Amino acid sequence: VLEKRDLQDSIKPQKVEFRSLNFNSTLHWQPGRAREARDTVYFVQYKVYGQSTWQNKDDCWGIQNHVCDLTNETSDIQEPYYGRVKAASAGIYSNWSLSCRFTPWRETVIGPPMVTVVHSNKSIILKLQAPHSPYKRKRGSKIPMTNYYDLLYQVFIINNLLDEQQRVLVYEGKDKFIKIEHLRPGVSYCVVAKTYVPMLDRSSAYSSRQCTVL
């Protein structure tokens, strides 16, 4: 009996957690203390906080991966959810390992905007596009994150002559088209942008650089 309990404990999944980017939400875990046997498989369930019954996630039932996509199961973004995982090896099942409570609207990481340099003379014109959620409108297009949050764009300019690291904030607001003027001709400038959510006081990572020489 003891040996069985030891095995149950040693294969129990660890560090069960939700990770979420723009509401693409996945449950992650690590194998138990035992060196993972080749036949170890995992079973995933989820529920809304306050519900008594757990739902099986059929696509993640008896899988060998350490990740399970729960994007569709957590689409009510204001609701808090839990996920849990158990392991089985050599016919022995571990107990369930529980995630922390996860509320997508509060905890998803919002990605940076997509930045396109449209045109330049003595100025740079930028087009900014908010990241998209995985959820779709009736017509099939993906719903932008601006539908769920009051997002601001922060635009930074890097003058490559001066300093790689010096990013100067040149714009903060909601406009999708931005004109940056009074730049020096012949100088290489790079632009990066972030999305900022005032209500949560959170910024995204920087977008990829768009560079241009005037």
UniProtKB/TrEMBL annotation:
GO terms for cellular component: extracellular region; plasma membrane. GO terms for molecular function: cytokine receptor activity. Keywords: Disulfide bond, Receptor, Repeat, Secreted, Signal. It is found in: Secreted. It comes from the Eukaryota. The keyword Secreted applies. The keyword Amino-acid biosynthesis does not apply. CDD domains: FN3. PROSITE patterns: FN3. Residues 12-107 form the Fibronectin type-III domain. InterPro entries: FN3_dom (IPR003961), FN3_sf (IPR036116), Ig-like_fold (IPR013783), Interferon/interleukin_rcp_dom (IPR015373), Type-II_Cytokine-TF_Rcpt (IPR050650). Its main location: secreted. Belongs to the type II cytokine receptor family. PANTHER family: INTERFERON/INTERLEUKIN RECEPTOR, INTERLEUKIN-22 RECEPTOR SUBUNIT ALPHA-2. Receptor for IL22. Binds to IL22, prevents interaction with the functional IL-22R complex and blocks the activity of IL22 (in vitro). May play an important role as an IL22 antagonist in the regulation of inflammatory responses. This is Interleukin-22 receptor subunit alpha-2. It comes from Gavia stellata (Red-throated diver).
